[in-house]
Amino acid sequence: TQSTWGHSECLFFFVNMFFNFSFLSAVLFICLLDGCNAAIFHLNVKNEARKVIDLGAFGFLGGRFSNFTMIVSHLRIHNKSDGETVRGALTAPLGFSLEKRDTANSARLEQSVRYSAGDCFVDWKRPERIIMPVPSTNLTVIDYKTSVPLLPNVRSSSPQRISLSEELPAGLLALFFFNCNPELRVDFAVEVREFNTDDGGVSKDYLSYGTSNLPAMLFAFTLVHVACLALWVVTMVRNRAQIHKIHYLMACLVALKAFSLLFEALQYHVIKRHGTHSLSADVPYYFFLSVKGVFLFIVILLIGTGWSFIKPFISEKDKRILLVVLPLQLMINGAMIVVDTLNEGNSSWSVWRDTLRIMDIVCCCAILLPIVWSIRSLREASGTDGKVARNLMRLRQFRTFYILVVAYIYFTRIVVVLVRSSLHYRVTWVAPFVLELGTLIFYVFSGYKFRPMRENVLLAVDDEDDEYSLSDLRKLHEEQHRVDII
User: What CA–CA distance (Å, rounded) separates 305 from 222?
Assistant: First the structure.
């Protein structure tokens, strides 16, 4: 026979998942205390062979309203063959460069460009380039606005400091490291500080120009979610007879979303004012963000299975999905936290980012299966159990919810990513705004469809003489399981 989970088994499973995830998150946060990066970031690279490294981009106001500072605390250039330190002028350009770009994504693509023998990153014409090269005998830079010489070998006891302000043009400036010497390897450690200032030059803003308004925007979305939570609680209080356990989980989901938005706004506010992360904002933000992500999958899965309002148990097929998708999503959320704390210059950053996005989309597609199974079961039962009208209405509800979940996954996992990669640096705030607005619409529409109201056909209680007992429902699912096996 097919085993099923009742209310007690479901609650035990979710509580166990929650505490295990809390423990994992706590350990992860402790391990990452020293790894957080922000507008003031540190990067330590050893034995680097890449020709171009993207170190990130920042939107500057330009001129006296902007500042770029790079402190090179260590720089060692050595031969690939014997590891011997190279002294004197190089045969080809090597150093750092500030390049003007329209989008951050166009800067990241520089790392994937394949250069033929003799070609170099700095050979391309860039009228507003600011180059910081190590002295070489063949500096073939075609065009640049400013050149600041870089010492060939720097030690931590005597770091080199490069500070630019008036020289900075207005726009999105991407910082690159380039090495046009294929026979050489490089070790370097740098600290980079980038910020804009107000008219008086007193207040510093460490957020890129297009994201400076994110703290206020996220706090506004926090208030909207708090209002939605209050409305949901009032609806539950007024319709106590129609409340199911899933409604409490939906309330918890909205509360977790509000908390994650609040601490995300606080995190951006701290970065905006100080340029660095604060543990008092980071730890709660990443915790609530991760728990909210897992909780969202739990709610979608349980609604898709019809748990609590159509059947008071979870079938074997649904249980397998839960046991696979939730732990996998837990690990993906943890890995995304790690990637989020890394600088783009790390060699594995783009690989892990793309891999985790694909895995996240796979998990999102997996949670659609219980909805599809529920639709199929309702379609098969619509003309056989004597409750045709009721089942047809439920079938339409599940079809609507299926379309809604598909649209939400496609919008948040694909459309927003494409929009973010193509936005001009002045309007990069549009991507998180569209993401949060789409999420809010998904929450509101789902809550409206499954709200605890007497006229809600999906949640309405059947007459006693026409109602399935728990044992009848279990037998029905066991019979359906035998048919699936045959």
Answer: 30
In whole angstroms, what is the distance from residue 273 CA to residue 271 CA? 5
User: Could you tell me which residues are beta bridge partners of residue 67?
Assistant: 195
More confident residue, 92 or 383: 92
> Helix or strand or coil: residue 432?
helix
Q: Which is it for strands 94-101 and 130-133: parallel, antiparallel or unpaired?
A: antiparallel
Cα 217 to Cα 268: distance, rounded to the nearest angstrom = 11
pLDDT bin (cut points 50, 70, 90) of residue 203 is confident
User: Which secondary-structure segment (H or E) carries 97?
Assistant: strand 94-101
Residue pair 46/187 in contact by the 8 Å Cβ criterion? yes
Residue 414 is classified by DSSP as I
**Residue 187 DSSP class:** E
Q: How is residue 327 written in tokens?
A: 């732990």
| pTM of the predicted structure, to 2 decimals | 0.80
> Residue 75 corresponds to which tokens in the numbers above?
């720089």
**Cross-strand pairs, 74:** 189
Angle formed by the axes of helices 349-366 and 368-381, nearest 10°: 10
Cα gap 438→432, rounded to integer Å: 10
Q: What is the mean pLDDT of residues 105-134?
A: 76
| Nearest residue to 207 (alpha-carbon basis) of 273, 263, 157 | 273
Query: 268 near 207, Cβ under 8 Å?
Result: yes
Q: What is the pLDDT of residue 9?
A: 53
Token pair for residue 127?
Answer: 């009228």
- How many Cβ atoms from other residues are within 10 Å of residue 183's Cβ? 10
Long-range Cβ contacts of 81-85 (<8 Å, 24+ apart): 81/183, 83/185, 85/153
Q: For tokens 């500080």, name the residue.
A: 193
Sequence-distant (6+) residues with CB within 8 A of 193 are 39, 40, 67, 68, 69, 70, 275
- E-only strand ranges, 10-92: 40-48, 52-60, 66-79
**DSSP string for residues in 269-291:** HHHHHHSS--HHHHHHHHHHHHH
| Helices 316-341 and 368-381: angle between axes, nearest 10 degrees | 160
Cβ-contact 285, 263 below 8 angstroms? yes
Quote the CA–CA distance of 380 and 475 in Å, as a whole number: 16
| pLDDT mean across residues, the chain | 78
Task: Tell which phi-psi region holds residue 163, choosing left (phi > 0), alpha (psi between -120 and 50) or beta.
Answer: beta
